[in-house]
Design brief:
alpha/beta, Spore Coat Polysaccharide Biosynthesis Protein SpsA, Chain A, ten-stranded mixed β-sheet, two-stranded antiparallel sheet, 10 helices, 12 strands, transferase
């Protein structure tokens, strides 16, 4: 049989122990109460635009603490103050340089660094597919960005750089030149290109952007004053002539040939062909199976011609293309569908014309495409 226990005597706590307990209790209450009502003033400030090309995108988080909450940030932009002139350098106008990229070419990046327009006024935007090649290109691109922006000379550093990854699968697994240019691949390939261009454009176009320069990732050689030269014409849309350097086996010397056949003036033959097409059919340029007899800017080049001579165009290519930002703001984009039987950059030219913006070309002003 268990014996009952005697009275229990509690040991008196020391003053030191009581003090430690009080301090510990206060700390616990502080963290519990303080964490429920954090101060978001810093995050609110950070969510406002850090510079004119970065509109606020961070969500506003409500405060659960007492007192009157602070209002969400409001950023004001007056587009009437954005100049788009023939002298972008003198007026310190912001340039948005956009490049869809499937492969990375070192010559492309080296050429960017040689552009004489102040790099602190240039924002770069890239979009790359989620493929093996796209992943490799992203890795190489990021290496060059880090090298330029962190350790490179200050004059080489760009205002900001944005990299996007496509949220859709590319229609072609191979990016080889021969595969890309097969006529049966053109509609799906160019529809995907249009989607990529639109995603890049709509994500990066800021309220302070004056000009948008589209430059393909395989354009590896341009004049250093490319931006100033094109903008000097003050045209809403203007394209240089894209050529390609190659080794001519007959001449046994380096030579050059036209490359981009999407800069053209329409023809009666092409207009009649379009009338006979179904609503989803598209006209393609540069293929013997679809002779349009359009006047191609690629063949308007004259060795002794004026470098700054302009011609009006009905279709444009995207190898190199300078566009006033207002043209895109008006709604001119790259249709991934048949738009008057045109698609992507040629469809963009048609859309720009429908909005009252006439595209132009420079037959004797050349940029050069990579030769695989």
């Amino acid at each position: 049989m268990a014996r009952p226990l005697g009275p229990v005597r509690l040991k008196k706590a020391s003053p030191v122990t009581l003090a430690i307990g009080v301090v510990f209790t206060i700390l616990v209450l502080y963290f519990l109460i303080g964490s429920s009502a954090p101060d978001f003033s810093a995050s609110r400030k950070a969510s406002a635009a850090s510079h004119p090309l970065s509109p606020p995108t961070s969500p506003f988080r409500k405060s659960t603490g007492g007192g009157k909450p602070k209002a969400p940030p409001v950023a004001h932009y007056n587009l009437n103050n954005v100049t788009i002139t023939s002298d972008p350098l003198g007026n310190r106008e912001n340039i948005l340089l956009l490049t869809p990229m499937a492969r990375f070419y070192q010559q492309y990046w080296d050429n960017l660094l040689k552009l004489s327009y102040p790099h602190e006024l240039i924002t770069l935007g890239f979009i790359l597919p989620k493929t093996k090649e796209g992943n490799a290109a992203t890795t190489e691109l990021q290496k060059q960005i880090a090298k330029t922006q962190k350790s490179g000379p200050e004059k080489d550093r760009f205002k900001s750089i944005i990299i996007l990854r496509q949220d859709f699968d590319p229609p072609l697994q191979s990016q080889d030149e021969a595969e890309r240019h097969k006529i049966q691949n053109q509609k799906i390939r160019r529809a995907a290109m249009a989607k990529a261009r639109n995603s890049l454009l709509f994500t990066t176009l800021g309220p302070a952007t004056s000009w948008v320069l589209w430059l393909d990732a395989d354009v590896i050689e341009t004049p250093s004053d490319l931006i100033q030269d094109l903008a000097a014409h003050n045209k809403p849309v203007i394209a240089p002539n894209c050529f390609q350097r190659f080794y001519n086996t007959e001449k046994k010397a380096m030579d050059e040939r036209p490359y981009d056949f999407n800069n053209w003036q329409d023809s009666p033959t092409a207009v009649e062909l379009a009338k006979k097409m179904g609503p989803d059919d598209i006209l393609l340029e540069g293929y013997a199976d679809m002779a349009t007899y359009r006047a191609l800017m690629a063949y308007m080049h004259k060795t002794d011609g004026l470098r700054q001579e302009t011609v009006p165009l009905d279709g444009v290519g995207g190898a190199a293309l300078l566009v006033k930002a207002d043209v895109h703001r008006d709604g001119a984009m790259f249709p991934p569908f048949s738009f008057y039987h045109l698609i992507e950059t040629e469809g963009f030219a048609k859309m720009a014309k429908r909005l009252g913006w006439q595209p132009f070309g420079l037959p004797n002003y050349k940029v050069y495409h990579y030769n695989e």
